[in-house]
Amino acid sequence: MRRIGVWAGAFIFLFFLVFLSFLHPETNPDLFWHLASARKAEELGRLFLSQELFSFTRQGAPWLNYEWLFEWIVWKVWKLGDFRLLVLFRASLVTLTIFLLDRHVTRLLISYLLPTTYYLLIRFSNLVLACSFLATRASMQPELFSFLFLVVFFFLRDNFIKASENYLPSKILNPKSQILPFFLPTTYYLLPTFLLFALWANIHAGFIWALAILGVQALARLVSLKSPQARAEFARFFILGVTAAAGTLVNPYGIFLHKTIWLITKDLAFVGQFIKEWEPTGLDQPDSLIFWAIFFFLTFFLTAQFWRKRSLDIESVLLVLAFGYLASRHVRSTALFGIATLPIFWAAVAAARWKRFSAGESPLNPAEAKPLSSLRILSPQCGERMVLGSGGKGDSPALNLYARWRHADKKSRKAPGAIGFGRAVTAVFTAAAVSWAAFSVGRRTWYGAKNLWRQRGIPRIHVDAKRYPRLTCLFLERTGFAGRKVFTEWQWGGFAAWLLAPEGARLFFDGRYLFHDLLREAMETSVDPYAWSDYLKEKGVEICLFGYPQGRAYQSVRTPRQGRAGYDHILRSWHSQAMPVSDWALVWWDQTAIVFARRDIANPKWIRKHEYKSRMNIDPYWVEFMVKKGKIKTGELLKELERNIQEAGRNRKNIALYRVVQSWHEGRF
Asked: What is the pLDDT of residue 138?
């Protein structure tokens, strides 16, 4: 008992470290339009918004706001404690999900008599793997509730199956018998299931995952409907699925919610071209190592099981393939893959070494029990260490289990050479995945603790300043341009709505599905930078807010040489070509964003005061070329950079550019 207390304390400390590792700045741009929507609904005296009010391109359009309850929750939390409380709330949600997943896996391991070390190693590995999977999606978004509800659904499903298995075969399959006794013990779980899915459907569309799991499990039973047991199991999953599906209809939009989800799903292939989280999961991505290792292990184990026993676990195969396909198609689905398949994974790990037992097996005889008299094991049922003695009455199930594995036919446990080699390879990759997950958790915990120590707690504005144009939005608000028609990049629209909507700003688009067609139109137009300026004028855009050009945004442009034949080839950014000086003035830039204003709608005096004529931050190669030609004076560049340092503060970008211009001023190119 004393040692059990030590291990319990160790796991409590591990969960505290997990909680600490998720106390990082907010990284989800969608959080801000969720907050802005709930704030606007409260101002209008509504529970949630049902029409678009933030953009000038879709003003007044109907909006099926199927995540309205999440918006209401995060808005109430934010009002109580700003982003500090939201960070704590987010870390609590993720930690609770990992804790419940740990309990779910522990319940599955009850069927195996595992030594203490083996059992604790599985629990620790499951904890770090789950933490690593969820870390890829650990930002304040409605998907976190879906992860939590999915694990809760596992508990309700298992309890329902266990409660109904003594009634369903005899009551449902026999038409002459009464069906009422079946509902008496199962209604206790059907009603919570209905309520869970009703709540889930108003927070996030992730309830589709649970319905898909039920569908896969029911489909696996259809293969062998000739068996009475298979028919009984199919009936259980069918009843549970109907209850869950009925719960999803309890939302403000009814069946139209499912139609909208289907329409959004059809656009994911296009959206994945521009949003990183919807990109395919490649082998070159560090965070994908754990996903691929577990996926290959499960694939190998299920294949080896079929090779050796000529039997296939159809349910596990379908679940692994379905969620593995989703995770390979979209980076954001790796967390879902982890939650859905980690129980299958650990059951496979236990089954690869330890024999599963049932409660009806007979106890050992004294001859079999004698060699095991001093073996110490951990009983998952009671959570206590117990000593297997001389075959006492209380020890017989455990002794029976261990002996049936220990003294099993050696031929049945001996694997062919290919399978043995594959088992060794997958064990190495699994160990590498667990080690990498533990390292990642430790690193995030260290950074989280160091940040909290430096800030003396969670800062009030706990938002990553490098991800969002906070200073840029404050500049627009300070100069009176917040009430204009503003174009922002897709991922910044929600943040701009959060800060600038109270000032009267109207945006081009943001991250919501309402603007998928507009996103497609904008991306197709942006291929030709010379047509971009005309496109913005047609849409009535007055202010443009961009991020900095990266990599492919620079293209080689041919420029005629003066005084002699030939051309010079110079790298120029997309921004310099799409936003010509004749139409747009660069009026602000900081480390994160740049702002262009239309010359024909802005005050000329204001333009002269704020414009950066050289555009060195977006067109450095052209500026260097013009300095060499004597067309631009380095003294003027230094003055502009000094002004930017005063306005936007010292940052890596303006300090680096200042040093470069100083070298030019000294004649070093």
From this structure: 86
